[in-house]
Amino acid sequence: MVKEESTDVSENQEEPEELSPKTKAFAPTLEKEHKLKFDKILGSGSYSRVARATWGDKKLEVAAKVINITSTREKDDYIKKFLPREKEIVKLLKHDNICRLYEMISFPDHIIFVTEFCAGGDLLRKMKDIKTMNEDDAKFTFRQFIAALMHLQSYNIVHRDLKCENIFLDKHENVKLGDFGFSRILKPGEKSGTFCGSRAYVAPEILRGREYSGNAVDVWSTGVILYIMLVGSMPFDDRNPTKMIERQLAHKIKFPKLCTASVQSKALILEILQPHAPNRPTYKAICESEWLKSQPYYMKPDEHPKLPTPSTATTTPTGPQKPKDSKRQHA
């Protein structure tokens, strides 16, 4: 785990492995019945491996997440609680900035999610390459990221594992949010006490074992991610969780002396990383913030929409309007 004020923001990741013998044995059937042909292993997790593959008559390039659902005591909670939620949620979501699900395949002891392939890799790898992101690129990326989360919000879905590794990029570097393994639907007033996510990204209420509701925990994680994009390091040193929580609760966020991020971007990060969940801004308020309000939403390769001139903006209802007061979200 790379710490505060380091230019490397990566976490320890497992090296890609081969497909399991059982998956390999079933590969000819998958190719024949589902027209899914595995190519290269992209990565692996606790209970799954992700492979690049081709799918369908047109041999569309896809990512195939192969999940081992063989029952063990270690995996029991995942198989009975988390996986059913993930299956339900990925079927619901249809948005340009969310990894699209093409098909869900079941075969003995395994489930495969056939999803959109993201040729641009993930945000973690991009940040390791570029160290810091210029503000124009950061605004474009962050605006798309928030759009994806607003789509989740429309279904009362909380992701609970937002981090750079789960923000994928297509060949044009459009955001594609993925990995909904810890996601769940939290209806208004409903609470959860489950610890989810990576320690460096999760909200202080989760670290403290408190119950939470709404999407304030996801909002916190967006602040951590924005900090990483603009600064190139983590905002908090998680080697000592107790001290990290103390700094979070004291609202102490340091920016390196050499940081070139604008005053407006720093102000937004500070507003998002509020220790008291009800004080964090809504997604709408984030979009209306001083830093992000001039960034239109669009998908590349479309061109950046031209903003209306000041005179046009005051005379046409379609022009940018004065931002409303920041609305707070309540847990």
From TrEMBL:
<comment type="similarity">
    <text>Belongs to the protein kinase superfamily.</text>
</comment>
<feature type="compositionally biased region" description="Basic and acidic residues">
    <location>
        <begin position="322"/>
        <end position="331"/>
    </location>
</feature>
<keyword id="KW-0067">ATP-binding</keyword>
<dbReference type="GO" id="GO:0004674">
    <property type="term" value="F:protein serine/threonine kinase activity"/>
</dbReference>
<dbReference type="GO" id="GO:0007286">
    <property type="term" value="P:spermatid development"/>
</dbReference>
<feature type="compositionally biased region" description="Acidic residues">
    <location>
        <begin position="7"/>
        <end position="18"/>
    </location>
</feature>
<keyword id="KW-0418">Kinase</keyword>
<keyword id="KW-0547">Nucleotide-binding</keyword>
<feature type="binding site">
    <location>
        <position position="65"/>
    </location>
    <ligand>
        <name>ATP</name>
    </ligand>
</feature>
<feature type="region of interest" description="Disordered">
    <location>
        <begin position="1"/>
        <end position="25"/>
    </location>
</feature>
<feature type="domain" description="Protein kinase">
    <location>
        <begin position="36"/>
        <end position="292"/>
    </location>
</feature>
<dbReference type="Pfam" id="PF00069">
    <property type="entry name" value="Pkinase"/>
</dbReference>
<dbReference type="InterPro" id="IPR011009">
    <property type="entry name" value="Kinase-like_dom_sf"/>
</dbReference>
<feature type="compositionally biased region" description="Low complexity">
    <location>
        <begin position="309"/>
        <end position="321"/>
    </location>
</feature>
<protein>
    <submittedName>
        <fullName>Protein kinase domain-containing protein</fullName>
    </submittedName>
</protein>
<feature type="region of interest" description="Disordered">
    <location>
        <begin position="298"/>
        <end position="331"/>
    </location>
</feature>
<keyword id="KW-0808">Transferase</keyword>
<dbReference type="InterPro" id="IPR017441">
    <property type="entry name" value="Protein_kinase_ATP_BS"/>
</dbReference>
<keyword id="KW-0723">Serine/threonine-protein kinase</keyword>
<dbReference type="GO" id="GO:0005524">
    <property type="term" value="F:ATP binding"/>
</dbReference>
<dbReference type="InterPro" id="IPR000719">
    <property type="entry name" value="Prot_kinase_dom"/>
</dbReference>
<dbReference type="InterPro" id="IPR008271">
    <property type="entry name" value="Ser/Thr_kinase_AS"/>
</dbReference>
